[in-house]
Amino acid sequence: MSTRTLSPSETLLREYMRAPTLAIPTALLAVLMLGGMAVVWHQCLTGHLSYWAGGIINGLLSYGLFSPIHDGAHRAISRIGWLNELIADVSLLFLFPYAPMVALRWLHNQHHIHANGPEDPDRFEHDAPRWQAPLRWAFFDIWYIWYFFTRGQHLVKKHKKELIVFYTGLVAVVGTLIAMGYGYELFWLWFIPTRISLFLIAVVFVILPHHPALVSHHEDPYLATTMRMGWEWLLTPLLVYQNYHLIHHLYPTVPFYKMHRVWYLRYDEHAKHNVSYQKAFALAPDNIELHHQFHAKQSGTAGNATPTPSGA
């Protein structure tokens, strides 16, 4: 039985998809964001920076911290398990301390399995009425926790003891800090920043790359997630490479800073499909009509059945 020899591009793709010993850019980003937040806390506590300014800065830093958390959820920071979890978990404590990695990883996997479909937890953001959108985008973590505890019962039961210890410790720490008189500081330097970062995360990771969210990943991956082309010199750092979000859904284990390489490496393969291109600052993709017509065309064929969720 002969074994097919991989082409150089296939070999390189496999290398990109395999977690490195340590993703240096990801680890550095985590250290810089956490270090920046520590500086902000110090400056505010010593009276050198106003709390409202500290809240805004920490909100932006928390947004930057989400990329290490996100890659950690895909085990893309390091192939050394404990190191990947350490970086991701420490980062997570400063953004979603009430959502341990076991919950976040499962929730995010549900998004990948059901992207844009009715079971996608991100439908909470997509389906928001206009008047509710800002609030939903800034408080989607509440929905995520509800989704986890109501639909992820198998994991809740499996990790029951860990979750009890985790939440007991969290309540004890936060309660102690408030009792010691640090409630005001927590509000301005943690709660307000998390609302800012959640809003930005919803926009950058959910709304923009999945608009108009009419076709699920099961139905057509190239219509479910977009590519934002143009002004890459500005948008790539601002969006932390999520202008290449289609690549993330096609190859989830590729570290965020390598997604543009995979796009060009596999360009000929991607070009065979109906890639949804968004121009620089546009919201609607160029092939928006295909999105609106998709289900009308499919109604007479295979239907719109969504596969049964698989375990995570």
What this model shows, in words?
By secondary structure, the chain is mainly α. It has a domain at 211-295. 63% of the residues lie in helices and 3% in strands. The chain is built from 17 helices and two strands. It has helices at residues 8-17, 24-45, 51-73, 81-93, 101-114, 123-126, 133-138, 140-151, 153-158, 160-179, 183-210, 221-224, 232-238, 245-250, 259-265, 267-270, 288-298, and strands spanning 226-229, 276-279. The protein has a two-stranded parallel sheet with strand order 1-2. Helix 2 packs antiparallel against helix 3 (51-73). The longest helix is centred in the middle third of the chain and has 28 residues, at 183-210. The protein is globular, with a radius of gyration of 20 Å.
